[in-house]
Amino acid sequence: MTTPVVAPAVPSNPIGDLSGKTAVITGGSKGIGAATVARFVDGGARVVTSGRSQPDSLPPGVEYVVADVATPDGVDQLARRVREILGDVDIIVNNAGASTPHLGGVLAIDDAEWVSDLGINFLAAVRLNAALLPAMYTRGRGSIVNVSSAVTLSPPAPMLHYASAKAALATYTTGLAAEAGPRGVRVNTVTPGNVVSPGADAVRRAIIDAVGADTAEAGGIPIPLGRMGEASDIAEAIAFLASDRAAWITASNLVVDGGQVQTR
């Protein structure tokens, strides 16, 4: 019998791949966003991040803007502060996202929640990119990473509003990359699988409790690499695509899920 091998953790040593870069990362107070902020700082970037409330702590040198990017006013506020703090922006990471599962199925998701999920999971990225892209086009360089979700690849009914919004984000990424590439700006998607984070943990627990499951792996489907994802796994993928190491990569969707999607 073959003994299962568990994937090792991502190394924590900074490699300076983002040295001299300026970056804005939305939703940076916890989970994937917080890990991405820390990874960018370790890589040498100057970072502005945002969230709806002030976090308890941040890595040294990181500037934080309290802003609700689900609203046009919140995005305008963030974009204005980013220009004041950083001047030119080299990298945009659209990570902010949120949703509430509806265990009663698709018809239990009311109109307001469809609109709300589109606001935070899709339009926040569209609006922030629209605010900061013109300057990137003028300089002829830049990198955007939009964070989607593996629920788009096999959408469960209780999360269909979230999956639809994140699928729209991935499609938008592909179209934007076609326009932005000739102007020197790369645009890519990172699609995380089952990751240990406060938001994802709460959603999984609600679904598990409702169906009586006894595993944190969605639908009981095993993860070939033997463990749940950590926020640092996703942060590493985002940092790679944002950096000049990925200079010839655009319009790509990097699925980071330990191989789980491929086993469905």
- In the CATH classification, which architecture applies? 3-Layer(aba) Sandwich
The total of helices stands at 6
Shape: globular
**H-E order:** EHEEHEHEHEHHE
Q: What is the share of helical residues?
A: 25-40%
Average pLDDT works out at 91
Q: Tell me about the biggest sheet? A: 7 strands, parallel
Low-confidence stretches: 214-219
Total strand segments = 7
What is the alpha-carbon Rg in Å?
18 Å
State the secondary-structure class: alpha/beta
- What is the assigned CATH homologous superfamily? NAD(P)-binding Rossmann-like Domain
CATH top level class name: Alpha Beta
Pfam families: adh_short_C2
Family: Belongs to the short-chain dehydrogenases/reductases (SDR) family.
InterPro entries: NAD(P)-bd_dom_sf (IPR036291), Sc_DH/Rdtase_CS (IPR020904), SDR_fam (IPR002347)
Protein name: Short-chain dehydrogenase
What order do the helices and strands come in, and which of them pair?
Layout: E1 22-25, H1 31-42, E2 46-51, E3 63-66, H2 72-86, E4 91-94, H3 111-139, E5 142-147, H4 160-180, E6 185-192, H5 198-211, H6 231-242, E7 253-256
Parallel strand pairs: 1-2, 1-4, 2-3, 4-5, 5-6, 6-7
Helix pairs in contact: 1-6, 2-3, 3-4
Descriptive notes:
Keywords: Oxidoreductase. GO terms for molecular function: oxidoreductase activity. This is Short-chain dehydrogenase. Belongs to the short-chain dehydrogenases/reductases (SDR) family. It comes from Mycolicibacterium arabiense. The protein has 264 residues and is α/β, with parallel strands linked by helices. The protein has a single domain (22-263), classed as NAD(P)-binding Rossmann-like Domain (Rossmann fold), CATH 3.40.50.720. The protein is built from six helices and seven strands, in the order E-H-E-E-H-E-H-E-H-E-H-H-E. The chain has helices at residues 31-42, 72-86, 111-139, 160-180, 198-211, 231-242, and strands at residues 22-25, 46-51, 63-66, 91-94, 142-147, 185-192, 253-256. A seven-stranded parallel beta sheet has the order 3-2-1-4-5-6-7, with helices on both faces. The model is unreliable at 214-219 (pLDDT under 50).
